[in-house]
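Hi Y.,

Following your request, here is the sequence exactly as I used it, all 138 residues.
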Amino acid sequence: MSSRESLAALRTEIEGFGGPDKYIDADEEAQVFERAKTLGIERPTAEALLNQMCLDGNWTREQEIVNDLQDLLDEAAKGGAISKGDFEHCVNYAVSMNMPRRDAMQCAVKHIKSRSLNIKKGWIGKNWFEEIRRQYES
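Below is the corresponding structure, written out as tokens. Let me know if you'd prefer a different format.
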């Protein structure tokens, strides 16, 4: 198979992942790089093709959203504690970028717990985050 044919095959593979939902999750990304390897395409070339297709198709890669979501949560915590509104704003941003809500919630919960970020209590001292943590902690 020529390099042109290999790139065309990889392009088709990527289209199958990103086209339907405009989102490349971590598993799909790993599959792209594995397929590239079997086609004899070096990782930087596969990465460049994936980036270009994401740009052209207005697709989002999961890792980009994860980084943004973590930055937003860290910024919200700088005010002392993350309110429920701050949390929802951060999750809704990730969802607006095509990340499935469940993935966004899991990512946010994981980041808050791993960084021990403070949570602002709700009405009458209710810990709104604890219920979310139990539901989405993986």
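The first helix runs from residue 3 to 21.

Thanks again,
Q.
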